[in-house]
Specification:
The complex is a heterotrimer of chains A (304), B (321) and C (341). Chain A is mostly helical. Chain A has helices spanning 3-18, 29-36, 38-55, 57-60, 92-128, 130-144, 148-159, 163-189, 193-200, 205-241, 253-257, 263-268, 274-298. Chain B is 77% helix and 0% strand. Chain B is built from 14 helices and no strands. The chains are: A mainly alpha (304), B mainly alpha (321), C alpha/beta (341).
């Protein structure tokens, strides 16, 4: 910012200050910061729109996403078919809406599950220490030694493709990060005085771990969940695009993109893949905005 | 320093062996075995059960799991990683053949993302609060939100199909031999592959730079009457660099995995594309070996980065912890 | 020669008149220094003493134009008396050429914590060398030689070896000596020392102060020493300025202020120092209350809420009054205070 703009801002603040019009902060600081962050708000709005559109898909379109109609193949977008039709005459818009259900389920569901698994094990191992901790740590290291996509594909080739398999595989590949995070927090918090006090009162390990310490670690965990959701949605999209994710008979955002592997489709039938890609990007962008907003508001070191 | 490296290598090897054991175990659960793939389905019923058993025995397939694993391990240590199920080519040959392409692509992406990421991030930090900074922040967030393969598809559509500036895919143009002629082919895949990482590096170097510029020694440097550029770069950027290098190191593994999809999209003949073909074709030995190889690459990458970080920070180099 | 009527004008190194520096953030304005005036004389040490948060460091930063982006000099004059005439520092562009030429070579600064004040990624020799590189015409070899000479002058053993070492390889006291070497490299007219020994052991403290005193005598450097320790003031100061919440409440020669304090705050500060030899039974007189929040300042005299001599008149800021030619005080009731002592 140039010096003159700064000067004008300063003058304004100084006047207000001298008139006694400033001062006093009210309300929850975290909430206020969140609301003041325009990007986070935009993210929240976009996220909700897409999520709700997917949930209320049947109300938003009367087309059946799996209904084949060979007489209406490869049609461009029109009033009848907002995103046009695909190779077998299925309405693309309907597929995107219904596909959103599965994609968001996989993305958000896997993120929450892997967070749950990681946090539970991480808190316990971090608190107890000893050989339990070492064993869990080594196991997580083993899983984290694989590049994620390679681990996922490896597991897919072993257990086969299915929706539930994919979620389980995602959880297996993702729990490690959350495990590390909550374990680290636990290690630092467990030395706090209030924990010693609880221990001396005879409160059980489980209670101390989950009821007393965990709430203090929630901030970074929530931020991480949003980032993991983004990661899994992108991962599912990529895998399904290759035909190796959710089986092709269930529409997901990635599955719809599968057709774009064909260069002719890429060039001539933009409506079949471009809108889906944009929806994925928007959704992930909104999740990232929210995550950023959460991270900023939870960070006590930043100025208000 | 040497002790440090040796110690790390000594931990790496048992880890690899253990993981290979796990992967081999996992493959036990896959349907079929090498023999069933050697016989085309049409002839399957014609071959008698005894014949199949004889073939299995000759290949050592009817021995116990531990036996087979041990056999595999002893072969692997000598460099014989078995054969691909489709075509029977030695796996080590396949991997070595495809490796240069993947390394080329990864190196290019790493170079692009480091240079652009640091440049843009530093620019953002020095022009904090301006339109340029805000714009770059949003672009950065877009960069980590757009699926890389989708970005690749759009890039192919615009630059290869519509504008015809760059080739659609593949590594070599037919008829061109020199290395320089490869350049047009590598541009798109490298740019697309580096997308996410550039965004990450940009964001991180911005915050690292802001952190560094906030430190006391910057005030000292300014109090000496040094020019701004020297303060920002020799003092600020130099100190901001260390955490950025650490981050790039952390993210190196994503390059190893991330190239898989991009190679497929751009038909880039690397290890990643081979992996996908292997998964699709249920070529389990190949799948397993490439997976193991990628683990090795990741562990090696993290070792290299640790060594580099230690070297950059004089405090660690001198032996202080 | 200037025509001022002030007696000691010809040996002035720096004059600060009615300086105001305000800090801004998103919503508030902090009047960190609100009308501060003092002189620094050549070859003398001015001690600026006060509690944390009173604005002494801000004053130093303002003189060097090292303020953070979200702050500015609101009003006032800072006049530096260089060999080529008077320079109004407050009118110079913050990082412009003339200001940069002054920084380091004419006015230099040393900071409180030498560990964080030095860049961990470069050798000490490099950092001292920068000073010489930019303010003197010496070439590389000469710079290195001069750096080694400086380190040795400051009492650092084995300087030929030390010059290539990193800050973390030095001990605390040596680091501060290295900082002083860096600051003195170009023989500045004024040395500003911002609590240079707070981060060091008491024994090292004495050595550092001795070093600074020697420099003052040998080079005629004017020193502005910022401290919160009255003991240091008694030892080293020629002149004293006592600061509280952004104002100088009392200033004068060390005799004036320490022997005949005229402000309640100065008196309270002196009373709260334990005296060696008086034994355990001695009564320590603590100043009641606590320093007010920077954003929630009292109206009028800043010390009024904590002062035993406060009256209704103290709700308006006292003017600065001259008790004698060197001794000034900012208090409505200074006459009673000095009489009672």
């Amino acid at each position: 910012m140039s010096q003159s703009t700064l000067d004008r801002k300063f003058d304004r603040i100084r006047e207000l200050e001298e008139a006694g019009r400033l001062g006093g902060t009210r309300g929850n600081r975290a909430l206020r910061k969140m609301l003041n962050n325009p990007l986070a708000l935009v993210g929240l709005v976009i996220f909700s729109i897409i999520l709700l559109a997917s949930i209320f898909a049947p109300w938003l379109t009367d087309h059946d996403p799996s209904k084949i109609n060979l007489r209406a193949m490869l049609q461009e977008p029109s009033a009848e078919h907002w995103f046009g039709t695909d190779k077998t005459g299925r309405d693309v818009f309907a597929r995107v809406l219904y596909g959103g259900r599965v994609s968001i389920l996989v993305g958000l569901g896997s993120a929450l599950l892997s967070a749950a698994v990681g946090v539970l094990i991480g808190c316990y191992a971090g608190y107890k220490g000893g050989w339990i901790d070492v064993v869990c740590l080594r196991i997580s290291e083993v899983f984290m030694a694989f590049p994620q996509i390679i681990l996922v594909l490896l597991l897919v080739s072993i257990v086969g493709q299915s929706l539930s398999n994919l979620i389980i595989i995602f959880v297996i590949s993702g729990w490690g990060a959350m495990f590390r995070l909550s374990r680290a927090r636990m290690l630092s918090l467990r030395e706090e005085e209030y924990v010693q006090a609880l221990r001396s009162f005879g409160v059980s390990t489980g209670r101390i771990c989950y009821k007393h310490i965990l709430p203090n670690a929630l901030g970074p965990i929530m931020v991480n969940v949003t980032l993991t959701t983004a990661m899994f949605i992108l991962a599912e999209a990529g895998l399904s695009f290759l035909g190796l994710g959710v089986p092709l008979n269930i529409p997901t955002w990635g599955n719809i993109l599968n057709v774009a592997q064909d260069l002719r489709v890429l060039q001539n039938n933009w409506w079949m893949w471009l809108p889906v890609g944009m929806v994925i990007s928007l959704f992930v962008l909104s999740v990232n905005f929210i995550g950023d907003g959460l991270r900023d508001s939870a960070d006590p070191t930043q100025q208000g | 320093m040497i002790i440090y490296i040796t110690r790390r290598l000594l931990i790496l090897i048992p880890m690899l062996v253990f993981i290979s054991f796990l992967v081999y175990l996992g493959l036990e659960f896959t349907p079929g075995d090498a023999v069933s793939y050697m016989i085309p389905p049409e002839l399957a019923n014609q071959v008698s059960a005894e014949k199949l058993e004889l073939m299995r025995e000759s290949l050592g397939l009817n021995k116990s799991f531990m036996h087979r694993y041990w056999a595999w391990l002893t072969h692997a240590v000598r460099g014989d990683f078995g054969h691909s199920l489709s075509g029977g080519v030695a796996i080590s040959e396949i991997v070595l053949d495809r490796l240069p392409a993947t390394l080329e692509l990864s190196a290019a992406a790493l170079l692009i993302s480091t240079i652009f990421g640091c440049l843009l991030g530093t620019y953002s930090a020095l022009h904090r609060g301006t339109v340029g900074d805000s714009g770059l922040t949003v672009v950065g967030m877009l960069g980590v939100s757009i699926p890389e393969f989708f970005f690749g598809l759009v890039a192919i559509l615009i630059f290869a199909l519509k504008l015809n500036w760059l080739p659609v895919g593949g590594r070599l143009m037919p008829g061109f031999d020199s290395w320089f002629d490869h350049l047009p082919n590598i541009v798109l895949p490298a740019l697309v592959l580096s997308l996410m990482m550039t965004a990450g590096v940009m964001r991180y170097s911005r915050s690292s730079m802001l952190d560094a510029l906030n430190r006391d020694f910057i005030k000292t440097a300014r109090s000496k009457g040094l020019p701004e550029w020297r303060i920002n770069f020799l003092h600020g950027f130099r100190v901001a660099l260390t955490p950025v290098v650490v981050l790039i190191g952390f993210r190196l593994p994503t390059l190893i995995g991330g190239s898989v999809i991009i190679e497929e999209v751009f038909q880039w003949p690397g290890v990643g594309a081979e992996f996908i073909e292997a998964v699709r074709g249920q070529d389990y030995p190949l799948v397993m070996m490439i997976a193991l190889f990628s683990v090795f690459a990741m562990l090696l990458a993290s070792l290299i980065v640790d060594v580099l970080t230690a070297w950059i920070d004089p405090r660690v180099r001198m032996g202080e912890k | 020669m200037s025509e001022s009527s002030e007696m000691n004008d010809h040996d002035l190194a720096l004059r600060v008149l009615n300086l105001k520096t305000y800090f801004y953030n998103d919503r508030r304005c902090n009047k960190a220094i609100n009308g501060v005036s003092f002189d620094i004389h050549k070859g003398k040490t001015l001690c600026v003493v006060g509690e944390s948060g009173c604005g002494k460091s801000v004053t130093a930063s303002t003189i060097m134009q090292l303020l953070p982006t979200l702050s500015r000099i609101e009003e006032g004059e800072i006049t530096y008396y260089s060999d080529d005439g008077e320079i109004r520092i407050d009118q110079l562009e913050r990082n412009g050429e003339p200001m940069r030429a002054i920084r380091g070579s004419e006015i230099a600064m040393i900071f409180q914590d030498p560990m964080t004040a030095l860049n961990p990624a470069y050798t000490v020799g490099f950092q001292i060398g920068e000073m010489l590189q930019y303010h003197t015409p010496l070439d590389k070899k000469q710079v290195r030689a001069r750096t080694i000479e400086l380190l040795s002058d400051m009492g650092i053993p084995l300087p030929e070896q030390r010059v290539d070492e990193y800050p973390h390889q030095y001990s605390g006291g040596m680091r501060q000596r290295a900082m002083i070497a860096m600051a003195m490299a170009c023989n500045p007219k004024i040395l500003i020392a911002d609590e240079p020994t707070t981060a060091l052991d008491v024994t090292i403290q004495a050595q550092i102060f001795e070093l600074m005193d020697t420099l003052k005598r040998e080079h005629g450097t004017a020193i502005m020493l910022i401290t919160h320790d009255m003991g240091v003031v008694a030892e080293l100061a020629d002149d004293v300025a006592v600061m509280y919440m952004g104002n100088i409440v009392e200033s004068g020669t060390v005799d004036d202020v320490l022997r005949t304090p005229a402000h309640p705050y100065t008196q309270a500060l002196l009373d709260s120092i334990p005296v060696l030899g008086r034994g355990r039974g001695q009564k320590l007189k603590a100043i009641r209350g606590s320093t007010p929040d920077a954003y929630d300042r009292p109206i009028g005299c800043q010390f009024e809420p904590r002062c035993d001599h406060a009256t209704a008149q103290c709700k308006s800021m006292p003017e600065e009054v001259g008790i004698n030619i060197s001794h000034r005080v900012r208090c409505w009731h200074y006459e009673e205070i000095s009489r009672n002592d």
